[in-house]
Each structure stands twice: as C-alpha cells, then as structure tokens.
Amino acid sequence: MAEGKTIDLTDENFASEVLNSQTPVLVDFWAQWCAPCLMAGPVLGKIAEEYEGKLKVCKLNVDEARQTAIEYGIMSIPTLHIFKDGQMVDQIVGVTPSYESDVKKKIEPYLE
C-alpha cells in the first residue's frame, strides 16, 4: 500500500519521524482490513505529493504498531493526527464525503 511519498511508521521510528520532525506531520492510523482506510490511502498519497516539503505524511498500521496506537488512544480507524513541534494539535476520525478538502482544511493552519 505505497501511495505517493508517504512514510511507513513503526513503534521504533515513530519518535524520530513524527515527534522530532521539523516539519508538521500528518499520521494516518490505519489497517489493511479496514475498507475506509483503503479508500483514504490514495487521497493521503495525493496530499503527500501536493504538500511535499511543507508536510510529512506518514502511515501507521495499528496491527503492526500496537504500542503507539494504544499510546495515542486510537479507538477507530482511519484516524488522522496532525503533529506540529512534537505535539498532537488536531485530529480527524473517519472518512467524510469531501475527505480531501476536509483534510486540507485541517492541515492548512499548521503549515508554515
């Protein structure tokens, strides 16, 4: 499931890729068996390309990185968390009919 320029996260690289990032980060908490997650994937890949250099888009498979998913209280997927300066500043849960524009509206305020 490799779209655009997304980065695959693990429990091991979460801190270095997300918390220590100089760039705002959009983290997609997802799973292979989740149909809405699979629908969201190509949209997030497109956003990763469009905002390259301004936003890092990462994907965290909740089945493979359970520790991080539990730490961030992920109860339903897909869930997107927006991180800036190592802090979670916003989130989106689920997929909306106007998903791409809704995600862009949420991330725009955090881009420099």
Provide the residue-averaged pLDDT. Answer: 95
End-to-end CA span: 29 Å
Mind telling me the CATH class? Alpha Beta
What Rg do the Cα atoms give? 12 Å
Tell me the number of helical segments per DSSP (H or I, 4 or more residues long).
Answer: 4
Oligomer: single chain
Low-confidence stretches: none
Q: Write the CATH fold name.
A: Glutaredoxin
Trace the largest sheet across and list its strands: 1-3-2-4-5
CATH superfamily: Glutaredoxin
- List the domain count as a whole number: 1
Q: In this structure, how is the largest beta sheet organized?
A: 5 strands, mixed
> What level of helicity do the residues show?
25-40%
Describe this entry's structure for a reader.
- The chain is α/β, with parallel strands linked by helices and 112 residues long.
- The chain has a single domain (7-110), classed as Glutaredoxin.
- It is built from four helices and five strands.
- A five-stranded mixed beta sheet has the order 1-3-2-4-5.
- The longest helix is centred in the middle third of the chain and has 16 residues, at 35-50.
- It starts with 6 loop residues before the first strand and ends in a 5-residue tail after the last helix.
- The model has no long low-confidence stretch (mean pLDDT 95).
